[in-house]
Amino acid sequence: MPNLANARQMLVAALWAGLWAGLFLTAIQRLQVLPLIQQAELYEVQATAIPSHTPAEHAVPHQAEETAWQPQEGWERTAYTAVANISLAVGFALLLAAAGNLRGGLSGWRKGLAWGLAGYVAFFVAPSLGLPPELPGTQAALLKDRQFWWVLTVADTALGLWLLAFAKTSTNKLFGLVLLVSPHLLGAPQPEFHDSAAPAELARRFIIATTIANALFWLVLGGLIGRFFAPHTDNKPV
């Protein structure tokens, strides 16, 4: 029978870890990432602005396209970002707790850091090798193609890391290595033309900022879930 007490503890731990890690990520994004996005949005607006000599009747469709709702700058945008970050963090915390539980528990924050690092590699580093973080106004491939490659890369990387870490035979470890490299051999979908409204230096700073922010987020999330989700002596490695 399922261990309901263990499942309840896992859920509570994930909620607490996700809450604090999500708030932590929001604070980092507010300080390091959001200013870069705001700069890129200015370049995007300038690139899509209608020249002043354009007749008014031709400007109506363009203005209609820009009436889509979005959070206001300031506390409203920060609040929506925090809600999204906390929701994602809770889901990721549940994944880390469930994976660690299969190996006998996370046994404290130090082991949680290792699981957080694995999550960082699977969910950010590996996909970013083919689809690096992009600023607004960047030309990209079709969304459905990018989503498919992202999911494939995350799944292959997570399973590949699991096999490399826990498989007992060299054949399975080799298969794990194949899984790690296969999405990159396949190649991420790319746009027909590479173009960006923002300068290349701003895009480089954005990639660095998001890489650091996600690394800190995953380490904090892993450490917290390892701290909150205490191991159980009846959990045995599989």
From TrEMBL:
Has UniProt tagged this entry with the keyword Transcription?
no
Listed A to Z, the keywords are:
Membrane, Transmembrane, Transmembrane helix
Q: Which residues cross the membrane?
A: 79-100, 112-129, 149-167, 206-230
What domain of life is recorded for the organism? Bacteria
Family annotation (InterPro entries): CbtA_put
What name goes with this protein?
Cobalt transporter
